Amino acid sequence: MAMFIKDAPDKPDQPIRPAPPTNSPPNNETALSIIAPGTKVQGDIETSSVLKIEGNVEGTIRGARQVLIGRQGEIKGDVHAREVVVGGKVEGTITAAERVEVQGGSTVAGDIFTKSIVILEGGRVNGTVRMEDNPTPSFSSSPKLEPKPMPMPVAVVR
Known about the structure:
Radius of gyration: 25 Å
Helix content: under 10%
Largest sheet: 8 strands, parallel
């Protein structure tokens, strides 16, 4: 992207002026936001790019393409993203449209809703894991587990 435009490159007396702004939005597919170690964020975060967390977040994360939680990273709140990689700690529900990875030495204290999950040796999940094509959490306050009727035994008499 050109920052300056020169009207006539052969004329040294012509001033160089800034290029006119383009109306195209920035490409968020390559954007990366980092919450550094020692940084504490209180409040919700909404982004459509990649979010790497090495510090602490207290709040909900929504809309991210990918959330990467580093070894020192901690989240106290829900995470809604396309893909979530946990290397630290999460206390809350994770809803990932595509994939969740729980790395060795990391902890998830909450439910996980996703299409695909990888839990590496040493990774801990203290909650339920639900794998569906369209993962969405159920927000009922107390889940009712309906007992399924037991099949009647079949006796074969000859």
